[in-house]
Amino acid sequence: MEKQLSILGFAGSLRKGSYNKAVLRAAAELVPNEASLEIFDLEGIPPFNQDFEKTPPDLVKQFKSKIRAADAILIVTPEHNYSVPGILKNAIDWASRPYGDNSFEGKPAAIMSASTGMLGGARAQYHLRQIFVFLDMHPVNHPEVMVPFAAQKIDEQGKVIDEETRKRIRQLLESLVAWTKKLKQ
Ligand SMILES: Cc1cc2nc3c(=O)[nH]c(=O)nc-3n(C[C@H](O)[C@H](O)[C@H](O)COP(=O)(O)O)c2cc1C
Fold this sequence. Notes:
The protein has 5 helices and 6 strands, in the order βαβαβαβαββα. The chain is an alpha/beta fold. Strand 3, helix 3 and strand 4 form a beta-alpha-beta unit. The site of flavin mononucleotide has 16 residues, from helix 1.
């Protein structure tokens, strides 16, 4: 039997009732059988300080080792002021340092975003893709999963109830699995 692919997912929101965390949880339910999705919570990662990049806090060490062990990365993020939220950029900065010890290097990745607005976080996704260039990551291009008007698609319990959104999440995960296998060849 083929080994299951491991995907590490994290959300760019710390909010308890986060729509993006809800989309990430839905992804964990919808992941294809040949893969597993582990969720990492960015809560507790302190502000990046380059003085400590060679001796990072334990949580950052743990984050980096989980990234390294994963076959692929899934990031589900809000858009803050037309870009990626500070807490996501901060976590990425820690995990990419020190120079020469970038834990994201060469990883296949997929991005999703959810927003209360009508563009669904598209601008944050494109900023994240630009960050991936320097990190030397390989994002899946299609389908693009942006969840606009998230409050109408996610219920009070934090469940994604919109069938079309669930279908697109599943399609993206299938693409990520296929892309990861292709890059491993
Ligand atoms: C600081 C801040 C900036 C925001 N900027 C944007 C934005 O540029 N585009 C957008 O679509 N929504 C923006 N929003 C609204 C978010 O889409 C909304 O708060 C969303 O629920 C955040 O995701 P979460 O539920 O996962 O925390 C912003 C929210 C905050 C708190």
